[in-house]
Design brief:
The chain is mostly helical. It has one domain (5-144). Helices cover 48% and strands 8% of the residues. The protein contains 7 helices and 4 strands, in the order ααββαααααββ. The chain has helices at residues 5-15, 18-27, 40-43, 56-77, 94-101, 103-117, 123-141; strands at 29-30, 36-37, 151-155, 158-162. A two-stranded antiparallel ribbon has the order 1-2. Strands 3-4 form a two-stranded antiparallel ribbon. The chain is globular, with a radius of gyration of 22 Å.
């Protein structure tokens, strides 16, 4: 299948969308250092927008949005002023800050894709889910966990610590080590 430049850019807009990001967060292989591992078996299953089957006007709009995303990202990476970011967003640096400053462009791309696919979805909720999954992955990569180390679990916004090997006193919980003990030792 041959694609013209406009169709390629529309496809790139989709591949940079939160729809695709969320799919990758959910399906790609986790690597210990934090990035996602993309393997052929995963990418082969990735849903891709068929730009040949959608309205040409929508393809052109997605291509324009990709151009906007690309120029804004290049401006941020090159230290040039970003027409997308407001003054209050200009503080945080790094890749996460750059993603956050590009959020409005991603939002417009996601809204257009939802319109094309006739999906009634809250694109802000979609972004929040993908962002949360990414944060969990990055936080998990930033710490070392050794056997017996204390594990912190977030429950309803509170952090509750627990030690490995201890059982809960609530309910009918039985520690797994019970099955390893010799009979009569329990």
């Amino acid at each position: 299948m041959e694609l013209d430049e406009t169709e390629v850019k529309a496809l790139l807009a989709y591949l940079n969308s939160t729809f695709n990001w969320l799919w990758l967060e959910q399906n790609a292989r986790y690597i210990a250092k934090g990035p996602l591992g993309l393997e052929v078996s995963v990418v082969e299953k990735m849903p891709v927008l068929n730009v040949k089957c959608i309205d040409r006007g929508a393809v052109e709009e997605l291509a324009r949005l990709f151009d906007e995303l690309e120029s804004s990202a290049r401006g941020l990476a090159g230290g040039q002023p970003d027409p997308v970011a407001s003054e209050s967003e200009a503080g945080e640096g790094g890749k996460l800050g750059m993603l956050e400053r590009l959020r409005q462009v991603f939002r417009r791309i996601d809204s257009k894709i939802a319109e094309v696919l006739e999906i009634d979805v809250d694109v802000d909720a979609l972004w929040s889910c993908a962002w949360e999954m990414m944060e969990r992955r990055i936080k998990g990569a930033g710490r070392r966990v050794k056997p017996g180390a204390e594990v912190a679990v977030e429950v309803g916004g509170k952090r509750e610590g627990r030690r490995r090997g201890k059982s809960s006193s609530r309910g009918a919980t039985i520690p797994l080590t019970r099955w390893l003990e010799p009979e009569g030792g329990a």
